[in-house]
Amino acid sequence: MDQYIMKGQVPLSGEVFIAGAKNAALGIVAAAIMADEPVHVDNIPAIGDIQALIAGVKETGASVVEENKHRWMINGSTLHSVTVESGELQKIRGGYYLIGALLGKCHKAEVVMPGGCNLGARPIDQHLKGFRALGAKVEIRNGKVYAECERLVGNHVYFDVSSVGATINVMLAASLAEGKTILDNAAKEPHVVDVANFLNSMGAKIKGAGTDLIRIEGVPKLHGTDYSIIPDQIEAGTFMVAAAATRGDVVVRNVIPKHLESISSKLREIGCEVVEGEEEVRVVGTNTIQATNIKTLPYPGFPTDMQPQIAATLALATGTSIISETVFDARFRYVNELNRMGACISVERDNAIIVGPQRLTGATVNASDLRAGAALVIAGLCAEGYTTVCDIEHIERGYEDFLEKLQSLGAVIERVAENDTRAKTKFRMRVS
Ligand code: EPZ
To answer: Which domains does the chain have, with CATH numbers?
Structure first.
């Protein structure tokens, strides 16, 4: 397994270009098989999660052409199987979108249960509730979700919780159902809106995406399209917070500032200067980071996917900060790793209490999931001395060219093989 090795206390500076949104791309790539014509999708991030989903798409028999690093053509006209059980798919969460896509198109789906970041219980009961409301018989057995129906008929679906995945998944199936579907208490994230816009570009009739009430009028078929995915809100936020933590000056380009408002607001609260342009945001860090309190919430609240990264920054803040994690029940696994670097964070149920300022010092730490890994890199870039982050495959499955982008901002960081002590020694000699 590879690792990142880095030397801290170098302020990040310069500009970084943000890739397409991972959590929109997963829904869109799955939805692309629903047409019987070529679908071209641009600005797809070149990350492990997409490769895994493409493996699942290929299992259905849909044709796939990688037109360039960020552009794919998918044609569902050659689709001949509703069974998807590739091991690759068990590593990611987004594979379950193939259930909604296949159920909508073929009225049948047999898809391996989802994997993805270990953030505690991540049930899919709301997905199944939605499929059943549309008339599907759904059961879980042998590690797979089996869904089937004679007819798919629109219905009123009230989600017990605001769920990005369930909203997107049921929206996929309902797009080709007979009659009207209402998704009530729907998720409002930008990536939900992007999937709805993509489906509408294929001829679907979806209104209200971005609100908690989405109205869908089923259509008999979807047609080809050429669509470009929105920028990744969380990748952008990660680099904004990295700029703040390292007291740097970074312009994050190719973003939609509106999607970043909750993050920009918090960075201003802790003392950073945040300047918003048309498609870029500049973050100038401050030497004295102020403590603050954060509550993660569904969009437009502060994103749970930014929680580990901001926690690493608040470890450096003057004062005591409290982070309340209201979305997932086990998203503080990274705290022990940060405390090994000198942070002073205690976890009490859904709250992390962060006492600062602390002097972070380099250590060897383990990434438990995608965003936790990003947080540990941010901490390493601020710490005195050298930090090694292990299990970086978690990070690279969700951030395109993460290492290269950090290096372009001046970070002293490299990828090394786990047991390559020579490379590690060379790195330390070169940068000391
Ligand atoms: C998506 O996960 C994202 N993943 C997550 O990003 C993100 O953290 C999450 O939405 C919240 O924004 C993808 O889009 C691939 P949810 P998802 O359904 O859809 C509960 C990242 O770092 N719930 O919105 O799985 C659930 O347990 C990843 O990019 C049910 O109870 O999240 C959670 O407490 C990590 N039943 C809450 O709802 C269900 O059927 C929100 O989950 C579904 C969800």
So the answer is: 2-19+231-431 (3.65.10.10), 22-228 (3.65.10.10)
